UniProtKB/TrEMBL annotation:
A single Gene Ontology CC term: cytosol
Record organism: Streptomyces hainanensis
One GO-annotated biological process of the protein: pyrimidine-containing compound metabolic process
Pfam families for this protein: dCMP_cyt_deam_1
Protein name: Cytidine deaminase
Keywords (A to Z) from UniProt: Hydrolase, Metal-binding, Zinc
GO molecular function, one term: zinc ion binding
Amino acid sequence: MSNDELIAAAAAVLHPHRVGDRLFGNVGATLVTEAGNHYSGVCLDTGSGTGFCAEAAAIGAMVTAREYRIAKIVAVWRREEDGALHVLPPCGRCREFIRQVDWANIDTEVVLGRGRSATLAELLPAHEWPSPLDPPTA
């Protein structure tokens, strides 16, 4: 799936909805699994830190379907004022979430624009478990 196709799929799930001062569904994400299946989700902005990002919603749908390996992922946001579509890189929490769902996801391609991508490893520096400072004691 091309970056443009993945971006379009993520944009297709954008349906902003206000509840009080909160906005749901204004960021959409779509991912493609290693098996070639697509999953999408939207963000939920709730109080007290109980909400979650669009990437987490898409990953939840993927895990519900018993898949864990993400080949490619993108998140998008459309500005209300002029309708401009933006690709959003995953926040730090989502980067770590992607990695923890399956260790192989460190090689996931993260779409950063129409012609721009990076691996999760490039976006998540120092992701290896650290070496011990002192030799183990027996």
